[in-house]
TrEMBL record:
<dbReference type="InterPro" id="IPR029039">
    <property type="entry name" value="Flavoprotein-like_sf"/>
</dbReference>
<feature type="region of interest" description="Disordered">
    <location>
        <begin position="194"/>
        <end position="215"/>
    </location>
</feature>
<protein>
    <submittedName>
        <fullName>Multimeric flavodoxin WrbA</fullName>
    </submittedName>
</protein>
<dbReference type="InterPro" id="IPR005025">
    <property type="entry name" value="FMN_Rdtase-like_dom"/>
</dbReference>
<dbReference type="GO" id="GO:0016491">
    <property type="term" value="F:oxidoreductase activity"/>
</dbReference>
<dbReference type="Pfam" id="PF03358">
    <property type="entry name" value="FMN_red"/>
</dbReference>
<feature type="domain" description="NADPH-dependent FMN reductase-like">
    <location>
        <begin position="8"/>
        <end position="150"/>
    </location>
</feature>
Amino acid sequence: MAIRALLLNCTLKRSPAPSSSDLLGREVLAALAEQGVEGEVVRVVDHDVRFGVSTDEGDGDGWPALRAKLLAAQILIIATPIWLGQPSSVCKMVLERLDAELSETDAEGRLCTYGKVAGVAVVGNEDGAHHTIGQVQQALNEVGFTCPAAGATYWVGEALHKLDYRDAGPKPDTTGRTTKALALNAAHLARLLAEQPYPPPETNNAGVGPSREPA
């Protein structure tokens, strides 16, 4: 089957401002294209996504349109900068919105995110890449996504310097290598899960994470 990818760029910068997260994200999509995967980049801050933990916060919320793209894709890539050693606030908002997927199931009782593959791309000029990847991957896995082996790529500049990834030049033997591994394994896993989906739960509550009430 045709495999599609959606990349959510969680930069704090609105288009058309230059974004290192955008650059690395597009490199991931280029590597996925080599595996026969079509992809699309969405810069989240260009849309009026509201804070919340539902699928639609109403009043012109931009999330439902992004969610429709997500549900139509088999691979989700989250690209985020590092701020204060953490994923960006936009990334955290996206993860909070994905919490609603714990209450959304298909006709056989599986989460709608089951069978979808998730990867992470991180950039920054400070420490925190592994911490950020760990936070994002754990959250994505909890809401039903499957993370492949070598499911992340990243670049961080020298500590206390201000060099951005988009100004650092190609990194084929480091970030480039991990980007290709992410793409190869994500595409492979997405095809495997498309051919052999996760089994439905034996009861309405088995195998599905707990839904949460809004705090």
